[in-house]
Every structure is written in structure tokens, then in C-alpha cells.
Amino acid sequence: xxxxxxxxxxxxxxxxxxxxxxxxxxxxxxxxxxxxxxxxxxxxxxxxxxxxxxxxxxxxxxxxxxxxxxxxxxxxxxxxxxxxxxxxxxxxxxxxxxxxxxxxxxxxxxxxxxxxxxxxxxxxxxxxxxxxxxxxxxxxxxxxxxxxxxxxxxxxxxxxxxxxxxxxxxxxxxxxxxxxxxxxxxxxxxxxxxxxxxxxxxxxxxxxxxxxxxxxxxxxxxxxxxxxxxxxxxxxxxxxxxxxxxxxxxxxxxxxxxxxxxxxxxxxxxxxxxxxxxxxxxxxxxxxxxxxxxxxxxxxxxxxxxxxxxxxxxxxxxxxxxxxxxxxx
Length: 329
Hints:
Blueprint: H1 5-9, E1 15-20, E2 22-35, E3 42-55, H2 56-65, E4 69-77, H3 80-91, E5 95-102, E6 109-115, E7 118-125, H4 133-149, E8 154-158, H5 167-179, E9 184-187, E10 201-202, H6 206-213, H7 223-236, E11 240-244, E12 250-254, E13 257-261, H8 274-287, H9 292-306, H10 317-326
Parallel strand pairs: 1-4, 1-8, 2-6, 4-5, 8-9, 9-10, 10-11
Antiparallel strand pairs: 2-3, 6-7, 11-12, 12-13
Helix pairs in contact: 2-8, 4-5, 8-9
């Protein structure tokens, strides 16, 4: 039996709010056999189209695969793509009680053209301006209502700089969570990097750390990197700073104590969505009572495991348990 088994069993049935920018990932799939006579571009002979939940909704999918009950909170357009997003969420059995539709915004869609199993082009349909003041107030009220009316075990902020997570939304939801003693975990982007004050766990990757802190240095274990983490923790007053470092593993700091954890040797196929898996597992670690080192170790394993798969996929609880047994953990 894995050392982590008791914690993993505690994942079951936890109510986790995922608040942030959601999107629809659309894939147009086909074959390429010739080049267009109109321009030097391949002609894709259409075979079929697939649509999947993306952005913050992929974090919800990861939480669902771990046995949690994710509740999405976001703003999408009152458009065809928005309806397709809601339909896909319903099909996946993800609660959208916190999702608002607005006629003045469009649903974010990333359209990928795939020919012969290779991505040839991506088209983004999106609006990235911040929510209007009126919509912002309505959205905060919706999130507050969810927190006040049922047991919420944690809140994840998943920021893609698409306008849902405004400074006011961030500040008010964090304050409400702290008032109710609900753990908060953040996967940030640089625009509102320093608005996430007094959260439980703040998880940038190394690039986001450098951009947010306006620093320019290559990664190496030691003074420059650790000083940047110290400074960030002081500015945010966060309980934990958890930095993912790609092939170098991860680093977690809890108060004055920091630790590096090496990446496990993997046959990497695709790093897409690994950050979503890491924040999902780290959040479940928070709510199940893991300490900082245990959270970092388990999240590091899950993030590496998902990189062995192609595409944006989730890691199931059973897969994670098997990997822990394989690693003797």
C-alpha cells in the first residue's frame, strides 16, 4: 500500500470551486496530401471535429478524475460556443452553477487545425477585456452565494488573463475564503500576479515567477532563485509558494522552510495541461491534510505522469495510485 493512500482516499467527494477563465478547445482533424494552388499552404481534407473543455475547465476535469466535485465559476458568452461549452460540461458531469452567460462577451475558443496528426494552425476567438463593473458585482455575488450556502473544501484560481479574474474579484473571493477558513490555491498569470495576497498556495512556473517579479536569470538552485521566492512570499503573505521547474522538478517554500524535489525520469510526449494537473493535485493535497513537502512530491509525480500522454488529458486516481506503488511511495 502507498504511503499516500490515506490522503488519496480523502480526495473523494470534496467540493472544490474552480474560478477563472474557461474556454472551448476545438480540433479540426484531417489528412494532408497536397499543397494549395492558391497559396503555399497545405490543404486539410476534413475528417471530423472534436471539442473539449479547456482553461480553468481542464482543472475541473482533473479534479473530477481525482474523485472531487468541481464547481466551475466563470463568465462565458451568450453564444453558440457558450451553449456548446455548457453542453460539454454537463456531459462530463461538471457543475456550472457558478458560470454566467453575458451577451456582451464571447466564449473563448481555441481552434486547432490538425493534419496528419500534426498541428498546422491555431485560431483564437476571444475577448480579453476585464468584466464590466456590473457583471463583476453579479459574478462575485454568484461565487459568494455558493460559498455561503454549501460546504466548500477549497477554491482554485485559474488565471489565463482573459478578463474574468479582475483585481476586485480576486480580492473579495480571497477575503471571503479566509473568513470561512477555506484553503485557496492559485495558478497565476502576470497581469494580476500581486493581487493574490494571503492565499494558501501560490503556484507559478519558473517563467511566470520571472515575469511577475520582473527578473531575468536562468534557473539554478541557490541564492538568486530562493531570494526571488522569499521576496514573493513576503509580498503575497502566502502560506506556501510552489514553483514548477520543468525538467528540474519543483520547489516549495512553507514559511522559512524550502525544499527542491527532482523530476522523475520520464519519456515526455506532451507537456500540455501539466500545470492544470499539478494545481489540481496540490489543491487536493491541501484539503486532505498533506504537509508542504508531501503536496510537492505528489504534485510533481502527477505532473510528470501526465506528460507521458499525448494531448491535454487528466490523471485518474487509480493511475496515480499505481504510479506511487511503482515508485515505492
